[in-house]
Amino acid sequence: MNRALRNALSSLLVLGALTACGSADPTVPTPTTAKSAPATQSTAAPAGPPPVPQPTADGTCPYLASAFVAEANGQLVRKTRLSADQPDPACFFYANAEDVQLSVWVFHGDAKTAKAVVDRAAPVADSSPASAPDGWVGGSLAGAEGAVYAVAKEGDAVVVTSNQKQTIKARRIAETVIGNLGL
């Protein structure tokens, strides 16, 4: 895997990556218990993007169904964990007890910070341009360890990382998240 993808995936897991969970209908999440920790999202980050969210509790992703993730990413979802971020926690979908197969991070803040979140996940110099859905801009890249699809629009950013090498899977999930949240 190229260095940029490794850094992007590591950053996402270190700073708080994304993931999604739910039921067979991507708009209807499956209930689960959840523990919470202090939120880490910010609307301004003078020193760059905020830390990538980390999973803190088991739970159900409020904006993405686990069944949809399983179908879109091509792997069963064994468990889902959430970050403490609010109003939209990062969701981490696990292929087994320890391996995150997919993560989704939805950032809300100012436009400059949203762009920085995307640029950290999919650096312009190392990624292919991403422009879906309409009005969203960012990058996508794939490597030996998986794919990243990260886009921003105004003060919102969505970053999807997958252990699958096809960026189309991460893109489809990002488009679904953006639609489900009405962003």
Summarize the structure in short.
It contains four helices and eight strands, in the order αβαβββαββββα.
Descriptive overview:
Residues 1-22 form the signal peptide. InterPro entries: DUF2020 (IPR018567), Mog1/PsbP_a/b/a-sand (IPR016123). Keywords: Signal. Residues 48-183 form the DUF2020 domain. The chain is α+β, with helices and mostly antiparallel strands and 183 residues long. The protein has a single domain, classed as Protein Transport Mog1p, Chain A, CATH 3.40.1000. The protein has four helices and eight strands, in the order αβαβββαββββα. The longest helix is centred in the C-terminal third of the chain and has 15 residues, at 167-181. The protein is globular. The termini are far apart. Residues 1-45 have low confidence and may be disordered.
The name CATH uses for the topology is Protein Transport Mog1p, Chain A
Mean pLDDT reading = 82
Helix content: 25-40%
What is the CATH architecture assignment?
3-Layer(aba) Sandwich
Number of domains: 1
Could you state the order of secondary-structure elements as H and E?
HEHEEEHEEEEH
Q: Which structural class fits the helix and strand makeup?
A: alpha+beta
CATH class: Alpha Beta
Note the overall shape. globular
